[in-house]
Amino acid sequence: MPRNARTMFAGAVALLGGVALAVMPQPALAQTTTLTMSSWVSPSHLLTKDVLGGWAQEVEKATNGRVKLQMLPKHPSAPPGTFDAVRDGLVDVSYVTASYTPARHPLPLLAELPGAGATAEINSVAFSRVHWKYLQAANEYKGVKLLGVFTHGPGQMFLAKKPVTSVADLAGMKIRSGGGISEASAKALGASPLVKPAPESYEILSSGIADGTFFPSESIKSFNLDKVVKYATFFPGGFYCSSFGFFMNQDKWDKLSKQDQDAIMSVSGEALSRLAGKAWDAADKIGLDAMKSAGVQITEASPALVADVRRLTAPLAQEWIKSANAKGVDGQKAYDEFHAELKKVAAGN
């Protein structure tokens, strides 16, 4: 074949090969879904950086980068309105404490009753197991996709003006509470609860509107309360323990592939409870250290105070059991199993 002909033939083959490659089906590029998340506490608070942020990292890793999360610069609602904000699509992922919505979410108040476990991780894991076994069927989180539940560390009593060593000391004291069981506990002990969101605590304590507050130790540092708190009374397992629901907009969940849904659930549920609990325990230690550095006088509840608190708050457990029964949940069984799980988790099971 003449040289020119060979050159023309080779060019034609190359051209046809290029056309063939162009029309052959190419592998689709992996689609990335970006979801929004937001928090009603500061960017430095553990709920924002460690729980939302830590979970977001786990999701991105589990989905091989197919699902990413982006933090909104501002939470789109007041803290108690978070459930509605997620349900209505103002943000895709967030959390709310049952203390802020006790009428809507009475069943999670189980984990808020006085005298639970010694740490947030123990409480969170035990609560998660009982929630998915007993409470989820009542569907109190209808309208959103519930991804996990957890608690903060034992809620203790912090005072600005005088110490509390007996129930009699609480008579007439104005104690800031987030609502729910902490509010009911304050009433049962003879105090006057002021129901206010956590971020308002510094203002009401520093101005003298409140005499004290119920909080986990973490909050003393997170909300700069080491500047106004002078005394603390620690009760075994806490005077209460706020429980949280962590959820996603249902429509956004439904649009995810089954593969990504399964990947997200692999880092949610009990895994999310452990992540949150460990983060809170670490923050509680920082808060306790800040109290000691600030010279806060810490008193461990005496046996007499422990006995009085247990006696006066016992009706709260019975009220919870009745409310659970009314929702079709065996309240006594769930209550008993929660306390059995607290012991199991504390023992490393």
Written account of the structure:
- This protein is of the alpha/beta class.
- It has helices spanning 3-23, 46-62, 82-87, 120-135, 180-188, 201-206, 218-222, 250-255, 258-266, 270-294, 303-326, 331-346, and strands at residues 33-37, 67-71, 93-97, 144-151, 156-159, 174-177, 192-195, 212-215, 231-234, 243-249, 297-300.
- It is globular, with a radius of gyration of 26 Å.
List keywords for this structure.
three-stranded antiparallel β-sheet, alpha/beta, 12 helices, disordered N terminus, six-stranded mixed β-sheet, 349 residues
Offer a quick outline of the entry.
By secondary structure, the protein is of the alpha/beta class. It is 46% helix and 15% strand.
